[in-house]
Write a structure and sequence with these properties.
The chain has 18 helices and five strands. With about 425 residues, the chain is mostly helical. It has two domains: about 190 residues, Orthogonal Bundle (Preprotein translocase SecY subunit); about 170 residues, Orthogonal Bundle (Preprotein translocase SecY subunit), CATH 1.10.3370. It has a three-stranded antiparallel sheet with strand order 4-1-5. Strand 2 and strand 3 form a beta hairpin. Helix 6 crosses helix 7, helix 12 runs antiparallel to helix 17 and helix 12 crosses helix 18. The chain is globular. The two termini are about 25 Å apart.
Amino acid sequence: MIESIKNIFKIPELKNRVLFTLGMLAVYRVGGHIPTPGINGEQLSKFLHQSAGQLMGFFDMFSGGALSKVTIFALGIMPYISASIILQLLTVVFPYLAALQKEGDRGRRKITQYTRYGTVAISLVQSLMIAIGLEAMEGGAFIHAPGWGFRLLTMITLTSGTAFIMWLGEQITERGIGNGISLVIFAGIVARFPNAIIDTYRLFHAGELSLFTVFGMVIIMVAVVAAIVFMERGQRRIPVQYAKRMIAGRGMVGGQNTHIPLKLNTSGVIPPIFASSILMFPATLAGFSTAAWVVILKDQLSRGGPLYIVLYVGMIIFFAFFYTAVVFNPVDVADNMKKYGGFIPGIRPGINTSDYIYKVLNRVTFGGALYLSVVCVLPDIFYRAFHISFYFGGTSLLIVVGVALDTVSQIETHLITRHYEGFMKGVRLKGRRA
């Protein structure tokens, strides 16, 4: 591995890409500490963690701590992700967007342009709501000069910060290594790991955690990481055979044997993010009331609560099937196979092929949904059992491992292309993407 890292710097193009990526991520981390004008960020951060700890802990994870301090990068990259998901869902409703997806580079550029517009619109709305909410907190104690001047300044600052992060991500994708947007999220999550380790040490030093418990935590984390790596690379391959055809000027073509790779986790981290977002809001709103029934509901909907686990698992399974149905259409796959003379051995082309793919896809998706549920629920149960004070969720671990696999696989591709050995001798790493 050390030799492979040295080989990175022997290839000028790869070295420049890696250094450019690290430089852009450093700029992102610096911006996460620049405060928004007109806000007392330090006092506000303490108040938010005390009154809205669960929701703040989840969304603050994606911004690397910038949201709780309301810095210029407080919104993070989440508006861009929301806009991307909305556009993907709209492709099912609007034929124009569905047609754009099939137009190649031109269509993708157009969809990217719409995604940028949607990101700015979502950022403006979210930043306005944040400004209004800050003015209402504690009678405006965290705001120096409430009013429309403050609201407009906050909208411009936070929206510009999100637009800049979006530009950083696109630059990393184009001129760096790996997927820029994913690496921005990765950097925000990893930046909080040192604080998590420090908080764990403090609990151990104070006697709230035993040495056996700490070792158990480490073993479980390593086991979960290993399981995620194994499952993210898992796929069900449906064999496909193409018949030989006579084409004028080219002679006999076809006769190839290939396969359709159905990933075990086609939906990625979308189901846990959606499910967590929906469940966190009621629990957070319940935290502002002291009524008896509200306290019981809050306890049930808190991380690791019985009702929380049941609803969380159910929503993960639902969104896994829903998102997979949006991004993968068995009918289109079957039609394309029939058009080019392909067929699945033992299955008739056309509707029989699409039904077979659909049946296999449902089974694979169900297994992937159960895998996501286990990974995401175990840390919550662990949190409730040992009362760890930092947010270490399955969603963050899924993102970190998935992005790391994708980035390392791209680096390894550069190395192997230039006749260098990969990171592990005799082993070829593969990222998230099929």
